[in-house]
Design goal:
The chain is mostly beta strands. The chain contains five helices and 21 strands. The chain has a domain of 289 residues: Cupredoxins -  blue copper proteins (Immunoglobulin-like, Sandwich), CATH 2.60.40.420. The protein binds copper (II) ion. The site of copper (II) ion has 7 residues, from loops.
Length: 428
């Protein structure tokens, strides 16, 4: 009897040791149980959520208590386009859940949707019954009811949260959020600006105000924190600061190669946790697959207005029809006046390329956004959708939008004189 229990004890010690050896670099292997609730600023640098917010906590007996309300809401994607969406606490994406390794969380989820829902905590290590898959791990939360989720964090990194009930419709309507867990120990190097961006895709026909959630491939509104450029707030940074951008993708089917201008970054984390230094690699584009997060980091040493955008060219367009012929080189003289007899206001587009469309100021249907971006300091910016700007400045008194970059003289590409061309032997 004694011998059996000693063997059992030894066995369980072995299992525990093996479990610890399997801990990835992103997990702390924290087996100390819940710790003192981490405090923003003192224990970690809080994330910055452009166009968004973080979930407030109430500390009750050493537990961080939060409340998510899943509900229908009105959401402005960009000036001109407001939709009926679903989200948490009045916004899509929902507030970023931000905590620290070792925090014990208790999150109440109230369902104010017309159908059941659950919340799955994507990438978060927790007891099986807290995992949120309707039917498999729990009963769905009926409309009007509040369920309680409770677990202790034992990892750090970037996760997400979303429903695991009627996923296609509920996520297609905007129900999703980021879940950021800071390490308990101070990070080295220290991160000064830590941004959280959720990438999503929507199918919203021009003139309508609800996403078509049955769409599989033809998405026409691509968003960063549920905003399309020119509705995206810039990421404002001081020269010399170290920047992290946490990217999540809960779109239906599209992966997003997110590209930054002016910098090389390192890919430092996934939803599996932090990548050890030796495994990080330099890039200027990071592919963020569906159902995944990626963290990137760089030191902001070059001031300017730097584009940061998905490199899929259709993902930087707004509400564009995708079944159009290529009109390049087609002689369109006289077509407009003929077609206008049938369709007043008709304009033939694209016979010299599509880049000028931002200048055309064509009327768009009510509650729609033009295909191409917004005003820039030099001319219209002909990208929309999944496009935002990292604004790096030497002198900042606040992180409010500092406006357009004021280029030192002689540092902007521009026209040349015949003399300059001749001097350099360029024959045009
Ligand atoms: Cu994309």
């Amino acid at each position: 009897m004694l011998r059996t229990s000693v063997a059992a004890l030894a066995g369980s010690a072995l299992i525990e040791r093996n479990a610890r050896a399997e801990d990835g670099p992103g997990t702390s292997g924290n087996d100390r149980g819940p710790q003192r609730p981490g405090v923003a600023v003192t224990d970690y640098t809080p994330v910055v959520v452009p166009n968004g917010a973080t979930l407030p906590w109430r500390i009750v007996g050493g537990v961080k208590v939060g409340h998510l309300v899943a509900e229908p809401l009105r959401h402005e994607v960009a000036p001109g386009l407001t939709i009926n969406a679903w989200g948490y606490n009045g916004r899509t994406p929902g507030p970023v859940i931000e905590a620290i390794d070792g925090d014990h969380l208790r999150i109440y989820v109230t369902n104010r949707l017309p159908e059941p829902t659950t919340v799955h905590w994507h990438g978060i290590l927790l007891p099986n019954g807290m995992d949120g898959v309707a039917g498999l791990n729990q009963r769905p939360i009926p409309p009007g009811k509040t369920f309680k989720y409770e677990f202790t964090l034992r990892q750090s990194g970037t996760g997400m949260y979303h429903p695991h009930f009627d996923e296609m419709l509920q996520m297609g309507m905007g129900l999703m959020g980021m879940f950021v867990i800071h390490p308990r120990a101070a990070e080295s190097p220290r991160i000064d600006r830590d941004f959280s961006l959720m990438l999503s895709e929507w199918a919203i026909k021009p003139g309508t105000s609800k996403a078509d959630t049955t769409e599989m491939t033809d998405f026409n509104v691509l968003t960063v924190n549920s905003r399309a450029f020119p509705g995206t707030a810039p990421l404002v940074v001081k020269v010399g600061e170290r920047v992290r951008i946490r990217l999540g993708n809960l779109g239906a089917t599209d992966h997003h190669p997110m590209h930054i201008h002016g910098y090389q970054f390192r890919i430092t984390g996934t939803d599996g946790g932090r990548i050890p230094d030796a495994g990080q690699w330099p890039e200027t584009t990071v592919l963020v697959p569906v159902g995944a997060t990626r963290d990137i980091e760089f030191a902001a040493d070059e001031p300017g207005d730097w584009a940061f955008h998905c490199h899929m060219t259709h993902h930087v367009m707004n509400q564009m029809g995708h079944r159009l012929p290529n009109m390049l080189g087609i002689k369109t003289d006289g077509i407009d006046s003929k077609v206008q007899r049938l369709l007043p206001g008709y304009m033939t587009m694209g016979d010299a390329g599509m880049g000028d469309m931002a200048n055309m100021s064509m009327p768009v249907p009510r509650n729609s956004i033009p295909m191409l971006g917004g005003r820039g300091p030099f001319a219209p910016i002909d990208m929309g959708g999944m496009f935002t700007i990292v604004k790096v400045r030497r002198d900042l008194t606040s992180y409010d939008d500092p406006g357009w970059y004021d280029h030192p003289s002689g540092t902007v590409a521009g026209d040349v004189s015949a003399d300059e061309l001749r001097a350099d032997g360029i024959d045009v």
